[in-house]
């Protein structure tokens, strides 16, 4: 019942490195400062919040005693979890605290058809919301039409993939990026995505059955071509279950369906393990990106690119797309930190996908897709500063070697 994972052929890692060099060429166009002065507002720095998951063994779910006790407080029988108990979305039992997150591997759950049925995890803002911080935000950018990435994706793009999870509305999907683990060089199991792809924010709790699929549909096949696809075609590097997850307190406390006060802190890090196999994620896919935590102003950042798998019309979530633009400043309120904003036509499903810039000749992750308007003309993503770096370091040092 488990899905098949293809091992990477020799040389794949080398070709991926060359592809990253191509990314540098794509992004290293004339850097254009995008309007406005450098922001002077002090940023809020919510505490990094981490969560521990359960592991599975012998067909049963085993969890550390402290987490089991927390689950029992919610009336949850951990032994029934893998038999479908996770589907209980009673609001009183929606696990929301950091230590409540439980994500045991359920091998074979995420089959190709279930992946294709997943709906986009969308965060849209109204025109009124978008204009709430006039004088702080730069003028709205012109729409940039997303361009399909060249195939195979693992040779032409950064190590981007799809993040699948179960929400109260059913299977859902975001995008994510393999990032380096500074404390475990060459053996990273870390994935960067959006906070709203792991946690519902102030009105909910942790989502369930979180899985990362790197280079999803690597050859960019159409829906018709994938009608009888096997697991290896859809997930060439296998399914990677999140056994640890971290997002910011800012998102947990302030996140909403339209981003809300948590939008500026809408980021998350997953620590993953393969459904099958033993090699690290970075070794398996052959690449990972550094994260730029310097939080450059929009004017200083230069040209950026956003990558992801848009799933809402006119896209269907099967192919990887990208947008390149010079960022401007965006904020939902003068009291909130400024985000980056670029013109882009990508829709829901691209949420959590990495934003990349060139720094010192290298492609680095500088943000992720968080929110956008109903007419899909632009995207906004958080600046990653000291608060984001603290979350990342905590994840790496505490869980990276697991």
Automatic annotation (TrEMBL):
Database matches in PROSITE patterns: PROKAR_LIPOPROTEIN (PS51257), TAT (PS51318)
Region (Disordered) location: 34-66, 120-146
Organism: Streptomyces fungicidicus
InterPro entries according to UniProt: Glutamyl_endopeptidase, Peptidase_S1_PA, Peptidase_S1_PA_chymotrypsin, TAT_signal
Keywords: Signal
Signal sequence annotation: 1-33
The keyword Signal appears for this protein: yes
Protein name: Secreted protein
């Amino acid at each position: 019942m488990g899905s098949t994972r293809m091992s990477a052929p020799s040389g794949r890692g080398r070709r991926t490195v060359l592809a990253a060099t191509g990314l540098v060429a794509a992004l290293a166009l004339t850097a254009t400062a995008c309007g406005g002065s450098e922001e002077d507002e002090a940023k809020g720095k919510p505490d990094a919040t981490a969560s521990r998951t359960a592991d599975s063994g012998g067909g049963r779910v085993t969890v550390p005693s402290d987490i089991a006790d927390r689950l029992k407080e919610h009336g949850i029988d951990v032994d029934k979890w893998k038999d479908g108990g996770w589907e209980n979305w009673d609001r009183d039992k929606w696990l929301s605290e950091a230590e409540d997150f439980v994500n045991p591997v359920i091998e074979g759950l995420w089959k190709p058809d279930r992946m294709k049925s997943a709906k986009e995890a969308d965060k849209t803002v109204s025109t009124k919301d978008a204009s709430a911080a006039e004088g702080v935000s730069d003028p709205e950018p012109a729409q940039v039409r997303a361009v399909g990435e060249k195939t195979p994706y693992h040779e032409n793009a950064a190590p981007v993939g799809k993040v699948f999870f179960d929400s109260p509305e059913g299977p859902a999907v975001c995008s994510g990026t393999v990032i380096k683990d500074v404390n475990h060089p060459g053996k990273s199991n870390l994935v960067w995505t959006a906070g709203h792809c792991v946690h519902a924010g102030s009105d909910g709790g942790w989502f369930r059955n979180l899985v990362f699929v790197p280079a999803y549909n690597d050859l960019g096949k159409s829906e018709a071509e994938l009608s009888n696809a096997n697991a290896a075609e859809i997930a060439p590097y296998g399914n990677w279950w999140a056994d640890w997850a971290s997002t910011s307190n800012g998102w947990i406390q302030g996140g909403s369906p339209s981003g809300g006060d948590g939008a500026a802190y809408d980021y998350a890090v997953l620590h993953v393990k393969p459904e099958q196999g033993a090699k690290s994620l970075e070794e398996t896919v052959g690449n990972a990106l550094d994260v730029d935590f310097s939080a450059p102003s929009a004017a200083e950042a230069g040209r950026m690119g956003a990558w992801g798998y848009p799933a809402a019309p006119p896209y269907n979530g099967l192919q990887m797309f990208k947008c390149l633009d010079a960022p401007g400043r965006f904020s939902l309120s003068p009291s909130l930190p400024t985000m980056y904003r670029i013109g882009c036509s990508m829709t829901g499903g691209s949420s959590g996908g990495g934003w990349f810039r060139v720094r010192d000749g290298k492609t680095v992750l500088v943000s992720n897709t968080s929110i956008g308007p109903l007419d899909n003309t632009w995207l906004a993503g958080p600046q990653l500063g000291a608060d984001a770096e603290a979350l990342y370091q905590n994840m790496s040092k505490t869980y990276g070697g697991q």
